[in-house]
Specification:
It contains 6 helices and 6 strands. It is of the alpha/beta class and 177 residues long. Bound molecules: guanosine-5'-diphosphate (GDP).
């Protein structure tokens, strides 16, 4: 993805959260580099990646933060959420507990992030549909109840990844601009 060097109208900070192993690192590399890396945990130390997109004629640089494994130690700090305009909250459609923990992640966002943060709930790994443990309807219901946007994606195949991020960025644009 080419970065437009000339002009950036807005920078939007987006955080990616959710239980360990749900695909946060992979969805980020799919969106920013169109890559999926098998068994790579190369994000340690890397704070964020960027991709520049055009929304409604404005050049938006999405600065997308990965927890770099900190969620394992419950050490996601307020600094991580500071200034975030959007959140991608991932669970793994093949692992029910990762969906059951989503409510906790929403509480975490409500406690540490800005009130107006736009949240997109993501059921990732839809390529593993034969192992599905979370019906989409459960997530739709939860998302409606909590005022979240919702999509199912596969970082592996790339299904819905761009559209989910672009939807989030558009919603942020409508909220803040
Ligand atoms: P994180 O701990 O949330 O950052 O999760 P990772 O991005 O490291 O992914 C955890 C594991 O799930 C890795 O083995 C990935 O290769 C795998 N994974 C991530 N996304 C997908 C996906 O969409 N489909 C499949 N089949 N595997 C995925």
């Amino acid at each position: 993805h080419q970065e437009t060097a000339e002009r950036i109208d807005y920078v939007f900070k987006v955080v990616v959260i959710g239980d360990s192993g749900v695909g946060k690192t992979q969805i980020l590399s799919r969106f920013t580099k169109n890559e999926f890396c098998f068994d790579s945990k190369s994000t340690i130390g890397v704070e964020f990646q960027t991709r520049t997109v055009t929304i409604k004629g404005k050049v938006i640089k999405a600065q997308i933060w990965d927890t770099a494994g900190q969620e394992r130690y419950r050490a996601v700090t307020s600094a991580y959420y500071r200034g975030a305009l959007g959140a991608m909250l991932l669970y793994d459609i093949t692992k029910r507990p990762t969906f059951d923990h989503v409510a906790r992640w929403v509480e975490e966002l409500r406690a540490h992030a800005d009130n107006s943060i736009v949240i997109m709930l993501i059921g990732n790994k839809v390529d593993l549909v034969e192992l599905r443990a979370v019906p989409a309807e459960d997530a739709v219901e939860f998302a409606e109840d909590q005022g979240l946007f919702f999509s199912e994606t596969s970082a592996f195949s790339g299904d819905n990844v761009d559209s989910a991020f672009l939807r989030l960025l558009e919603e942020i644009y409508d909220t803040v601009c």
